[in-house]
Amino acid sequence: MNPSQVPTPDTNxxxxxxxAQSSQLEDLSDWLRIPSVSTxxxxxxxxxxxxxxxxxxxEAAGLQNVETVPTDGHPIVYSDWLHAGDGAPTVLIYGHYxxxxxxxxxxxxxxxxEPTLRGDNLFARGASDDKGQLFAHVAAVEALLATSGSLxxxxxxxxxxxxxxxxxxxxxxxxxxxxxxxxxxxxxxxTHILSPDQPMIIYGLRGVWAGEIxxxxxxxxxxxxxxxxxxHNPNQALAALLAQLxxxxxxxxxxxxxxxxQELTESERIALAKxxxxxxxxxxxxxxxxxxxxxxYTVTERIGARPTLEINGMWGGFIDDGxxxxxxxxxxAKVSCRLVPDQHSSAIGPMLEQFLKxxxxxxxxxxxxxxxxxxxTVVPLDVPEMQAAARAYKTxxxxxxxxxxxxxxxxxxxxxxxxLGIPILFMGFGLPDDNLHAPNExxxxxxxxxxxxxxxxxxxxxxxS
Amino acid sequence: MNPSQVPTPDTNxxxxxxxAQSSQLEDLSDWLRIPSVSTxxxxxxxxxxxxxxxxxxxEAAGLQNVETVPTDGHPIVYSDWLHAGDGAPTVLIYGHYxxxxxxxxxxxxxxxxEPTLRGDNLFARGASDDKGQLFAHVAAVEALLATSGSLxxxxxxxxxxxxxxxxxxxxxxxxxxxxxxxxxxxxxxxTHILSPDQPMIIYGLRGVWAGEIxxxxxxxxxxxxxxxxxxHNPNQALAALLAQLxxxxxxxxxxxxxxxxQELTESERIALAKxxxxxxxxxxxxxxxxxxxxxxYTVTERIGARPTLEINGMWGGFIDDGxxxxxxxxxxAKVSCRLVPDQHSSAIGPMLEQFLKxxxxxxxxxxxxxxxxxxxTVVPLDVPEMQAAARAYKTxxxxxxxxxxxxxxxxxxxxxxxxLGIPILFMGFGLPDDNLHAPNExxxxxxxxxxxxxxxxxxxxxxxS
Lengths: 465, 465
Hints:
2 copies of one chain form a homodimer. The first copy, chain A, is an alpha+beta fold. The first copy, chain A, has 2 domains: 3-205 and 377-462, Aminopeptidase, CATH 3.40.630.10; 207-261 and 307-374, Alpha-Beta Plaits (2-Layer Sandwich), CATH 3.30.70.360. Helices cover 34% and strands 21% of the residues of chain A. Chain A has helices at residues 9-32, 44-61, 131-148, 168-173, 224-227, 234-243, 266-273, 279-286, 299-304, 345-359, 384-397, 411-420, 445-462, and strands spanning 64-69, 76-81, 90-96, 116-118, 121-123, 154-160, 185-188, 200-205, 207-216, 222-223, 308-317, 326-327, 330-339, 365-374, 377-378, 402-406, 424-426, 442-444. A 6-stranded mixed sheet of chain A has the order 1-2-6-3-7-17, sandwiched between helices. Chain A has a 4-stranded antiparallel sheet with strand order 11-13-9-14. Chain A has a 3-stranded antiparallel sheet with strand order 4-5-18. In chain A, a hairpin with a 6-residue loop joins strand 1 (64-69) and strand 2. Strand 11 of chain A pairs antiparallel with strand 11 of chain B, so a sheet runs across the interface.
């Protein structure tokens, strides 16, 4: 750009944002090509590559003190820009560069790690959860630094590679780093908005308990023709146990499960009823034959404000092609619970195991192994940062955001909130049909570019909040 | 051997049988090294190699008209020796050269396709089911032809490579070959005896129905945090359906399942009570924590004379290492039923599907796909060939065999019995703890060598029956 034609800062920024779109897309696509699946050990080197890629990108964007912190698991990436001056607030931006596994891979319409543009959408594992959403904030910082040389607020990035496996390294890292990470507000873009034109601020996220149920029967696999009918089949026993985890009204049947649950207040039910999402939208997005769930609650309430128990995986016996007449020695289920205030996430595993041991027949043995747990998070609606967030959305989208509670969990959010003592802004720009954790994950590109603008607008709004 | 020292035929045979043991073991081990797993398409070439190996062995043993019959699936191997002269009976010896899959392979103490001798046992997939047992009859023919140049009876071998996948090729082959396969009796060694010193003749085998249950829910995998509690999880729905397939007394709860079942007669119950096998033996062999099954029946009755329904495999959702919070689009179970007279094997699939569709909630769809089915077989105890079989066992083991009904199924036996109109002798020499269809399958070698002698004795006894 010719110095004699320097435009006003805003015009300058606008021109930058328009011309940078193709390189932003190219950069993000580069990152998405790295299969950083944190839960599969065969991808460990890929996860490290994704961390190194991000560190290089942060340097290029003008962020400082870029650090790739080794941990017992996958690295944490830190960087900052702290020159906003006296009195300027500090924003801690959290995200994760690890992604979910891709199976069943045969259901992807394009390879999960070959980002593919179809219409307005970029298809790739991690496009929305969370590489795309996190990248937008790096791009927002880059845009401001490139066009004005500074940021209105101080910024710290804290990015982990273990969000999809329960954040063990970050749990260990946080308590000792509260000074380094001190900030006034934490921004997390790992949620979705209602539709491309309707932003939404999540003020509550459910907690989670996840674990494995194992049923043991005979000491080795048996021939079902020679032992069937006289030995209790662990598959059958597990099915019977799993069938007893819900009652006929869709409630979780584990005794004590609802004891600490905060019932929804009338005003909260009225607020949630305003969320333009119901049975029709649920059926459309899920393709399910019918709505299901706890009697007496709307789907928005079931998903956002009620606890659940889901069987995420189950397996036992012969599951390859063809046929094998076997009674397996054991059968397994991976189960997760979404939790709401004030459920104690640490109590769920023992509670479930006690119930299962009590209802299991003497013909099998059952045990429960906890893999991760974290309580629910709720952010007060009246903090000034929440209002700044609402204005930032309004500036970019032209409409007020709705406030909702969401079904997903970001366990680390609770820890950030508690250890740093700061409010959290869940300002996503994913969409409900982004196929998170499923085949054909995508990112709606118009919202990706809007996300960059929201990141910029938030930095600007926070100085007046 | 020096012609001037030719011993009497029996001494000659005895010397042969003693000196041939090491080469018989070596030959069988060669065959067991070929991983002829019929149900896995990656082993197709191995299955063909196993057929070719058998054909060569038959030639070497002195059998004639050796033929490897190509089919739509795996080849059938035929051979015969038909020079016993006018009036001599003909024995059709059936067996199979295919084997079960080996998973879970990590539980094998030695590689499944590297036959390993530990104590008196040879460990390998197929050692007992059925390569070892079939090989014994080839070795019996070889021994007689080598020492006396002839057999007392005519012999035909019919060996398939699809027994573990429902014998489709043999079903297609048999009806057109009834003349070629015509015989007076069929001998099948694919069952077990009670203990190394107690032979047993199986006079009844259960039939089988095998198929897959599929539960479909949402049109794609969903994030359980965003849809859990509002969409019916197919894993949960399948578990609930499977849990309803048995009632609390261990009976199959599918309406109509027992309608055609022949109840045991009092005399049959008395006979089965003499089988020295009960709760203690069952627990010892299976390693199960407790006995299970249909109330009002002993374990021998449950296994041999009552129909069953077993879940051989089930799977849905994320079953890899780690964790994935998914609601799967579908969940599956592989189910098999063992059937008794006079259950119609073709009726089971529709019966099961009708029941499942009736009890399934509108929030999922359920379907049943039949993979194979065959009715039960019972052989009259009073045919003369059955008495010849008893004498053959007595000659070799020194004790009378017991008569029992067994839980396993050899569907093709029914077809042989019906299409050729001949009785079937189930004269096994496997043992109950041979780990058929499980890790560490083994063959008890003393019984392998006795099996060869039983084969010889049977040929000799049949001419006087």
